[in-house]
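Quick sanity check, RND transporter:
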Amino acid sequence: MKKIWVSATLTAFAAIGFSAQAQAAKVDVCVFDLLGKSGESFQMAQEWALAAKGWGAEVNLIPRQDEAVADNDFKAGKCDGVFMTAMRARQYNKFAGSIDALGGAPSNAIAQRAISFALDQRNAAKMVTNLGGKKYEVAGISPLGSAFIFVRDKNISSIEKAAGKKFAVLGYDDAQKIMVQRVGAQAVISDVSNFVAKFNNGQVDMVGAPAYAYKPLEIYKGLGNNGAMFNFPVLQVTADFVIRPEQFPAGFGQKSRDWFVKNLPKAMSMINRLEGEIPAKYKMNLSAEDKTKYQKMLRDGRMDMTKRGIYDPAMMSVLKRARCSVEKTNFECSLGGE
């Protein structure tokens, strides 16, 4: 009788274990990467998907080389989650999407602090939004590095000399369009899939991009022998991982965010390496006076964008604390307004 009871108990436990495996959530996640499966973002997503098995999710990664297609697939329910740039993901969560604010995180060290804080458990409620009766959650933020301004002609050696020049901007980011117009340049509406191509073939004179894009998008072709890169970060480019939480196991979002925090140092090391690989001959260093002038200009623009509702005011406070914890003597640390 005892043997029968033990056997029945073991069978029951085995059945429970099998049931738990069978109930692992199967989800489709679209991953935007200009290089598809061979890109750094997709490779990072593969590492994340492997870890997600431990959180009860069986992830099917779907590569998308067109970011608009990835977003539309997510909207249409073809994907349960999507990796895309924060500038486009801002529509789902303004708090996380505002890390990319102009001049908000002017160094990789500052960006790392801001991202770590945003993904911390104390901000879990800010990661969830309800839009049009649909629930969204930011389950990860990954840095892509500081964006620098590249010019085809190094004689465009200051923002003042950019007046009248054509500047490629991402059409879905109002902040870029407004800021380019404020400095007197011509905003040429583009998409992430073609903005550098316009620079390379001479359709625009200037473009902003991270070192992450330098080799894959062949920015050196646009620089040629007479181009330059302003060695002054104008914003931090990040990627957001947005999900429909009801499609994932309970507690999945925070476990995923914790994974992104744990992998931040690795991502930052890669970014520093890529920035170091841009040839020194292209880097145009600014004077301390010009740097302060441009920081003030970006601050004014950032505050204006926040008043317009483009940026999230709570994230602006986070970014300022991050900046002043790294650069305590910065002029803005004694000022209010953010």
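Posting the structure with no commentary besides this: The first strand starts at residue 25 and ends at 32.
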